[in-house]
Batch of 2 targets.
Target 1
Amino acid sequence: MQAQIRRVIWLLAAVIWPLTFLLTWVIAPPKIDGTIWPVIGMGVLMILISLSSFKVKETNIFVVGGLSLAAFLIYGVFVEMVLMQMALFTGMLKRRLAKEEWFRYAFNMTMFILMSAFSALVFYALGGETGVAQEVSFKIWPTLGYVLTSFILNQTILYYFYKVYYGTGELFGKDVLVELINTAVVSPIGVIFYFIYIQLESLSILIMAVPIVTMAIIFWLINNSYELNDLLRKTNEAGSQLAEKLNVQEIHEMFFSHLNKILKTDYVFILQAEEDSRHYAIKSYFICPQVLEEYRVSAERSVRWPTELTRKNFLAGTRKDWRRLLKGFLPVSAQSVLVIPTHRHQDTLGAVVCASEKRRLYGKQHLMVLEILTNFFFIAIENAESYERKKRESECDPLTGLYNYRYFTKLLETQYQLANGKPFSIVMIDLDHFKLINDTYGHENGNIILKEVAKRLCAIIGDRGTVARYGGEEFILLIPDTGSQLCYEMAEEIRQRISNEPFLITTSGDHKRLVHVTASIGLATAPGQGEDPLSLIRNADRAMYAGAKQRGRNRVATYIG
């Protein structure tokens, strides 16, 4: 669809642009009294001003509009058209548009030539006159009509263009207010220039050049300062939000989201240096949905990393600038690239790479912002990993790696809340005569047996439930969505795996020995055998002692009651 619209724009430009020039030449020929040099000087000044154009909240601001009004009042519509088209073309060349954006030359130049023509029609219709002869008098209402017509036509054409081409657009949005303020500021400058030209003629161009160029430069500097402050504000907000997150996956997702919003990235890669430091593995990545069909990447993919990018930040504006270093890693559609190497002390950790399909999108300020965001990101990751580590330590048994009793009770409380009447069971396991094993073979061998029992329990239960260490030689299991009979069969399988498969230990003198261990097991099923976590655990414990321990051990017992 967009390709068709671009072709239509080129076609319309090929018809409208030359035809408007021809009709304007015939209907309103240029009014140049004397030498052509003042016109050339005006053109040079307009070109210089166009090169200092800037953006405010994505709206292109052209201070040259005031000079075009002066050119119209002095020389007429044809000369104003020529000078404005030259200034506009030069200003767009500065932007170095990508090939697929070249249609904007045709669109903008056609739009401005139509604005010149229709604004002039309104001006003449309201009785306005151009030129600097004594018999020509300045009239405020035709001039105001010229300015308003140009403004309204500009906003209307842009609105319908964005509506058709991008599917979005506001007729009276914030951008319109910015453009209205710009028009209100620069139009009086054009009128002042006109009056000075009447008195001083060619000398007025030199006199006005200094304040106008100075004003344009000041606006440009103010805009750069505003953009930098805006970038830093967004960066600070992103850092604050990243610091609040304690989940590693959420931090990655938020980091990618902020980079996409702040730097308008199409691709983001987080790479980790491998042991040889010459290859980097892609740990995580973001690809803009619009380019997903064009490029595929897999996590943990290893790439050979250029030495030049391991120590210094890197900025590229076009594919030509980065092709030698990153060919084969970045997609061929990428143009602008930022690379921030990551380090800890003197060690190379990896790199963060951002890329966009737009040419020359990034500057040094964006490189600085990415470096700050990268530091925020890794600090957040370290905090999250530290939190997760401490959380695991508080919830897990250090010997077996299983969950501890504290975590298990919280999990059991949650299970009661989520069960909604469905049955679930717990299993209490106690290793028989384990004190004798510790006394005979030592506590180190006892620990070996406990760790092996934990492994066997996890292998049997898998993802069907949760295994925890209750304390000492006791273990406890939570089996969701499982009734008494099915749980009994599972418990019996556990008993047999413990009693039928001896445990390998090392005795004094480094001798290997197989030791047989048995277990007494009790189980209880909610909600019938326990109205709350405490009663359910108590009943499973009673079943284990009364039904298994006191009846000879090495057996499974179900709570009855």
Target 2
Amino acid sequence: MILYLDCSNGISGDMLVAALLGVAGATADEAGPLDKVVRPALRAAGIDGRLVSLGTVRRGEVDALAFRVPEGPGFATFDELIMSMYASKLDQAVADDVAKLAQRMAAAESEVHGVDVPHLHELSGIDTAVDLISAVALLHHLRPERVVASPVALGNGTVDTAHGVLPVPAPAVAVLVHGLPPADLPDDGVILGELTTPTGAALLAEFADDFGPAPAGKVAAVGYGAGTREVPGRLNVLRALLIEPAPEREDSMDEQRESTGGRDDRSGAARRTASGVAGGVRRERAPEDAEPQGRDAEAEPPAADAGPERQGRDEKAGQASTTAQPEAEPPIAAPPEEPPAAASPEEPPAAASVADGPVAHEPPPEEPPVAEGSPPAAASAADGPVADEAPAEDSAPAVDDPIALDHVLLETNIDDMSPELLAHAADALREAGAVDVWMSPATMKKGRLGVVLHVLCQDADQRRLADVLLGETSTFGVRVLPVGRIYAEERRESVTIGKLKIGVRLGFVGGRLVTVSPEYEDVRRVAAAVGRPAKVVYEAAQAAGRARFSAS
């Protein structure tokens, strides 16, 4: 299914939630998904689900659903919202998306008002958090394959904000809709005010995959979400359509050919070739027209009066050979009884052999007589350089460089040392320059519990570190294993949680962010400062890192 959002009258968080509820089957009399999806998600996030209600309002000639949230205190900062999501019982995927939206809105606010804004006014009321959580929960419930939206109406005039009276679109909205297509508004002098809010802009920018008209298909459900105010000359309604895509008709080309009297019975790929869709396939399909001629020519007995007709066929075959596959030509050259001169009497024999070269096997035997005076070894020597060069050409760029075994793994089994001395030995090895040191539990001879001490080091350091290992432990020998290492591309950045910075290590593979690892000591410090569990701060830092650096 495709979810289509008609944003010609703008979009806000409550309008989107109401429209999605309508698509999901909710009505003012039968809450349905409001009770099954929205309220449970709010309760999981620590918000009383009874705060929200659903009603019906009239906008112009349309009855639309109105999603209402009473006024109440919200979150002080987006960081607080993110940490609350991860401290909650929300589904992980929903919490991730709410965190991304919060980070997107925080980045827009910081770009407009500065990075040290202590309070972000969009979160001063509980309605912003409720709209974000409800909209994300409904989108995960509907699971559309794609979200398509129309160009979005931003409005005109001015809007009252906590930062004063600002032109529409407000600066934060302008940042959030950067790169999205705006809808044209009539130049009739009517003041519309703000039609797209920061919450609506963030939701649209995060989830819309494409912008344009509604895709072809069958409309499965429709929902209308009403805004909070009447707008002169406009409905102030967001319309959502759930569309089942129209199946692609493979026989449409056949119907067109029937209407013109030229039906083509070949496969769909061949029909697309004929229409110019797949030029590469056209070259593969062209010999099919020449094959019946080749077979007919093979079946026909050579006749004297058939010379011109055969010559015409050979000319066609010569023209097709520039595009045909080699497999189509053997039937023409296969009959041994056809002398080359009879096939094309006007052409000299050299031209005939050139034309038939790809399928004839005479040229290879003709070359040895050129070297008649040379011993057999001379012929093989002439071919030698070619044979020697081919592997070099194939092997140079065709395979990845081998992994360099530039590290060494030192290992030893120990079952007769105290844990204190083992810990001291590990510290001594790290201080001596080991890349890493760790221990694995093991069961030794006579059932004794012991450890395997592993030391990873540079190849040049193996002897020096082996001496440290022998001196600091009770072992009498060390295993030495050459190893290589494969690295992810690593970057070190920082994110802000509770106005405090946390360092994060980012791992990229093929330019894609795959790992976000917050620094442990930073997490401990921030958790103590903001009075939240370290687990919550760690997950909030991960979410902030994914949201901020995934596209970098």
